[in-house]
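Hallway conversation turned thread

IA: we were arguing at lunch whether anyone had actually written out Alanine racemase end to end. Turns out nobody had. So, for the record, here is the sequence (364 residues) and right after it the structure tokens. Reply here if something looks off.
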Amino acid sequence: MSPEIVVDLASIRHNVRTLRELTGVASMTVVKADGYGHGMVEVARAAREAGSEWIGVATVDEALRLRASGDRGRLLCWLTVPGDDWAAAIDADIDVTAYTVAELDAIAATGRPARVQLKVDTGLSRGGATLESWPEVVARARRGEADGSWRITGIWSHFAASDEPGHPANDAQEHAFRHALELAEGLEPEVRHLANSAAGILRPSSRFDLVRFGIASYGLDPAPGETPDLGLVPAMTVRAPLVSAKRIAAGAGVSYGHTWVADTPTTVGLVPLGYGDGVPRHASNAAHVLVEGKQRVMRGRVCMDQFVVDLDGELPEPGTEVVLFGPGTHGEPTAQDWAEAAGTISYEIVTRIGGRPTRRYVDQ
């Protein structure tokens, strides 16, 4: 057994279907960053099979990779940089996103009839047209539709705090988005979309024509402590063999810096994954793994290639399975458990894991 990341595509399909049924509108499954660490091509295929009308990615390169894999159907990308090949994206039947008049001019300069979505910044202060520049962007969009440069297929924005349902930014952003839609009179987009996973689940008024589901598609909670139990199933399990187990005496320090010192005699095991494989160093002395049906705490600092766990006096055989995280259905920690141990979010846990472990797909 080698370290591996096991992805259950049946769970992806289950989650996509569950989320589509919940909202009652079209869904976009977001597969940026290699499908949040799950595999962009495989997740997109599973999402299409489950009825997801759209796939979303960040970059043009990601979109072109999906097309090269054989993916068809509606596909949106939204993060371009100066010098990106707009023509290649348009030729590949990709919906592209524009924030500015300059980007619209660059799209028109390709001479190719494009499908374009306009993004407005309603308060995240990240990508998107500012509310001040929005009328100018809309006016240029209207001119481009009139001269055949493109068809505006969508208008959209993104929440800053949808995982906190009571945050005042949510009302403010939805109000700003509705106002931006009013200012876009004369454009007739196919889809208006604002909601991500948390908003799609928790804020029905923000669903409009389409919801962009990212982390929830992978079975992880977009708003821990706020989300009702929808029966979503985490799709990723990370496992590795135990390299060795040995006894250590009271007073023995473990791993770099001896940030943990045994106060009684115990046994420790070595797991062949480290921060070079995306195991967060911030999880040192805090995260748990499953070994022989019991959760065992990590001891000492995570190293580049390995970490140590406390085996509480037991000496499992080398090769014994160690489960870092998974769905939680067999007593193992979840990605959310690891996120809490590392002081981060589950998105980062599953997206960063990788490197040397092989990725294996199952359909259970």
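OS: looked through it. The chain is about 30% helix and 25% strand.
IA: good, adding that to the notes. Residues 205 and 258 are 52 Å apart (CA to CA).
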